[in-house]
């Protein structure tokens, strides 16, 4: 037997063992599904995908996701894929990867290279599909062949005209789509060829090929910045990240129109997911981390301050890289928290004093260091931060702890850590649940908001009555119509607010902008401040007038200000402005969900009368002339006309 | 002993949603209903990914049944 044969046999043996394990998991999944244990089946399906995120696994999972979709809390997202090349094999990969976020994309793949007709024709299958998201996936070779293969024959003087044509083409696509649909629109950047037509000379040229494509990509980003609801999938960066030469499969490109090698397709699905997850709202609002062997190397209780690995050099740098990634997340508005099993004194000493720590106690919005079960700690952290347990992502090096959390709290997103700590930071940076597509002032300051919140909670129990506490807070409320500068935050509030939310209607920025411009329709945003600081924009009311009836379409309050009586201030402004427009009645629905119990009594305690009740919810009406809503006297209410200053 | 054919059968079972026991070397587009040209591409891609190989259009053309696919793979993985 030659050494090669031996290696080959070993490899076959590995494959065989691997296959047995996977076949076991596949059988287990089918058994759980047929026994009707949907949640456990889903957890095992996640495990199978994490173990082998491949085309075969995706094909196995697709029909099983269909079987479970009714029995799990999946968010459906209709995604139209407009393309100039074969992308169908990505669809099952996208579904399998999205399933881990309990997201179920329904994909509609447009006809091969027919995207422009589909966008322009109001009767095309694109619009009858009624997408929530559309992506335009174009190859440089298709949209700008002169900038790809034919660059050496292109006269330098003709380059600007080509660029103008391509930009105009994309601008036309975006504008036409926007006229016909409210869906989010994703443009993809144009890929650079692996080698420039002029080779090394390209960089010396006035009209460099690489420059020309980069300029087009800058224009694509500009289009996204300038229009609401337009986003960018950076395809060129994705290809570069995985290696241009490894990315392509030219034989398949010229035989079946598929330019991407089989083992790279999963990366396309994951990259698209980075946009779909934040668009769907199935995001993680907080990252809860373990300490020993996660935030630093070693065990503080055994290794001590000088023994743990944490610093600017290898191997401690792995943990600094993770901490840096976490700091980046917190600047995106994601809260950080700790849930670890340690003696609190040991752990806090590291947090406060270790010179290698990039994160300090103030960077964490909640801290649980004790010997309780982690699931318990996570529940407490969710309650303290006023977020759902399903908005938590959990990072722990210990597989046992991860499995325990998965089985006790299946709604928590549990991230797996690889053996090598140098890869930890990438796990955090790659997770789509931490992606955001807009960043409001509120997001940047989120952890500061929570620090102020802790101060409020500390003084609250010093007061005999709620009213005394409210007076002490000196709350000021500002209510104004939505404006361009607040559009993103208002949309984000409608997407993310689950608890104090009367109707749980979600609105995209485009929808809100359209509504704000419709006569008889009001979109009001509320900002709340008090002696401890500024809560930012934390309330939204959407109303539509029909003759003398003002209908509340949406009314919601960020969890940060629940229980502060500011909802009454917002309602008083809604009723005052309705009266001023000549309305006599204010009405609205309370549509119950699993999570909006905090809003359940709102209409009743505000004096509304229940008019009817059905399977969907209850309808409430208030006579504005006999029962005006009064703003509590401990709140100072300011109104403004909504002009951006 | 698991053979290359067994791995191919497992992948085909995933792609065509047919139990692996109902799949053999002579399984083809004639015996498996779901095996159309798009699923043929999906099968080829899934096998390329699993075995870390690339097939030429000529090889893909020749893949009339799973036995042939396993034979082509055999020449690639032993080389």
Q: Can you put this structure into words, describing what you see?
A:
- The complex is a heterodimer of chains A (645) and B (79).
- With 645 residues, chain A is of the alpha/beta class.
- Chain A is built from 26 helices and 19 strands.
- In chain A, helix 14 runs parallel beside helix 16 (344-353).
- The longest helix of chain A has 32 residues, at 3-34.
- Chain A is globular.
- The termini of chain A are far apart.
- The mean pLDDT of chain A is 92.
- Chain B has 79 residues and is mostly helical.
- Chain B has a single domain (4-78), classed as ACP-like (Non-ribosomal Peptide Synthetase Peptidyl Carrier Protein, Chain A, Orthogonal Bundle).
- In chain B, helix 1 crosses helix 2 (37-51) and helix 1 packs across helix 4 (66-78).
- The radius of gyration of chain B is 11 Å and the shape is globular.
- The two termini of chain B are 21 Å apart.
- Classes of the chains: A alpha/beta (645), B mainly alpha (79).
- Chain A binds chain B through residues 8, 11-12, 15-16, 19, 23, 54-57, 59-60, 63, 86, 88-89, 92, 249, 251-252, 254-256, 258, 261-263, 265, and chain B through 1-2, 4, 6-7, 10-11, 14-15, 17, 38, 41-42, 44-46, 48-50, 52, 54, 56-57, 60, 77-78.
